[in-house]
Queue: 3 jobs
Job 1
Amino acid sequence: MRNTRLDEMEKYILQNESVSMEQLCQQFKVSMITVRRDIAQLQRKGTIEKIYGGVTARKGEQLTPFDVRRIKGREAKAAIAARAAQFVHDNDTVFLDSGTTTLHVLDNLSALHNVTIVTHSLQAMMAALPYQNLNIISLPGQLYRKTSSFTGLDVIRFLKTYNISVAFMGASAFSIEHGVSNSSPLEYEIKMTAMQRAEKSVLLLDSEKFGRTALLTYAQIADFDAIVTERMPAPEYERACRDAGTELIIAELPTHAPDGGEG
């Protein structure tokens, strides 16, 4: 019961950005003592901050709406996903994270047989529909519009029951100091659970996200079997991957013929 309340309280604060302690008491019909205890636990998680008379969502790398992220750097994302898709084989069970890069993996699985897609991403479910060779398992939860994905305790509970062959993960940022981080607290535990259930975890990350830090670190370099990007990162990242035993893969971008027209 308390875990459910904590999940809902966290979601309420994140959606409203700042709320008073009295609001939380009224919203969740609990005493001030209970609210203070719950807030203390959420503070330890790192998703919220206490302010005078209330609480506020922590500000980190801002989460951009899904449709905006999907358009940005589309060519690089498609190349990264095409290379990452080579990790999938017939009869595999694949977890697809809610990132815009992971979505492109689906475009590269049509030649395989009996592949099962497990995902909480609404966009991934819709994109997988035309492919008759793909079985789709949708994880239940409450729709979070910014990431176009389902979140909450039900997603985690169901995800824990599946054995995953390979998990394709996205991230908001990646730095040597802070590891692989994400801007959405609502997806933090989903990401960690998916990797725990997977035999192999592959991070799909465009080069712009290297050297940056987002709100919550959900994994370190060594937690991934491979990291796929479209451009060779700085030498320290290459060295860190080598030291961690993580394969660093550079996806090949398509070459464009020069424009022969005028202007």
Job 2
Amino acid sequence: PGSLLHWTRKMIEIRQRHPVFGVGSYVELSASNPSVLAFTREITEDESPWGEMDAVLCVSNLSRFPQPVELDLRRFEGYSPVECMGGVQFPAIGELPYLLTLPGHGFYWFQLIPPDDELEPALAASAKAL
């Protein structure tokens, strides 16, 4: 589970599960820390080959040192970020800036689950498999 091969296979699986990475819109977010790059990729039901809306939040630390960042995610208020690699659900997004701490050269990919949706069964199953 800790090998580069396992990690690469997991990244490919995530990419295949989320077509938004290839065809979704790209919106860069204002981050409170210049060492952190944050953006969303979104796809509407009409644009999706599967007919489903999808939104992913990507946050990357460009520094070799751990970095905190505050993100203005009010547009996604009520959404629940679910980390794509391990399926861990983070606290719901509210009105206040969303605070994250990233390890050196670390990153997060979050699927943004709308407030009226439950955790997707496929996502829950992949989290249990880890």
Job 3
Amino acid sequence: MKWIRNSSIRVKLIIGFTIINTLLVSIGILGTLAVNSIGNNAFLMYTDYLQSIDELHQIRANMLHQEIVLQHLKQARNSSAIEDLLKNITDLRDNNEIIMDKYESREMLAEEVEIWDNYKQKTEKYRDELDKSLDVVKSSSGMSAAKAIDNLEIYSTLVFDEINALIAYNQNLAEVQDQSNSNIANFTKIFMIIIVTIGFTIAFSLAFFLCRYITSSTRKGLGFAEALGNGDLRFEIEEPKSNDELGRLIKALKLAQEKIKSTIIKISSESQDVSASSEELSATIEEISSTFETISNNTLNIVNDIQEINAATEELTVTIQEVNSGVTQLASSSSDGNAESAKIKERA
């Protein structure tokens, strides 16, 4: 059962149709065998039993006809009529000989052989007595001939009894064959009904099972796929028991769901790490911004100081220029003083 459950849908269908076809082939084979058996039995019943019965009826009819001829022979007085009747008796007896040879050429069972041997013995005795009676009829007429013919009744009765026994035996065998044919026909009919019922049950069960299985699995897979399409990863589906196409499809969907869950969890974890890094980066940026503001403020202060230094430098430059001018004037005055001193020295 596990192997069948894990087989593909195609294999399951092939197995089901193979079973059904096997049952149908079994019906065909059984029907063919039954028809052949019935045909063989019917042929045997006709060729061996019914034809044997027909031949025995012919022998008995010839015997009865012979009895009638003998009764006419008792009353015959004309020699020509007697000759005709005797010839008729001879023809009937020869005809029975031919029929007996034909009957004896067939295969017979032991019981039939025993009855046939008794019949032949009774027939031989009857013929011997018939020949004696006919000799009496030929040699004399009247009461002695009639008495000789009447004495044949005992022997003819024994012959008829054996013929009737053979007819009854063949009729019994024919009835046995007919009953055998009826039994074969009934058995075949019952067997075919059973096989057809089993085949119909298997076909219906297979169709119902596959339809229900395919519909159920498709519905589960469709619902699962729709849930995945809608982003619902909470949808649960039971693990498939089969390993066919639908079972593998559901397993693939479950694996996809698990991978999507794993990916989302990983993304969520990495997002948290990114969020923490973003917070750290924001703090760092704030620190850098604060540092830049401090630097900017310091820069402004430096610029202001530089401007003040520039102003002081300019003032110092002016002062230096003024000093230089004073020094120049002083030097000029010194030169003038030196000149005056020289003049004074010269005057002195």
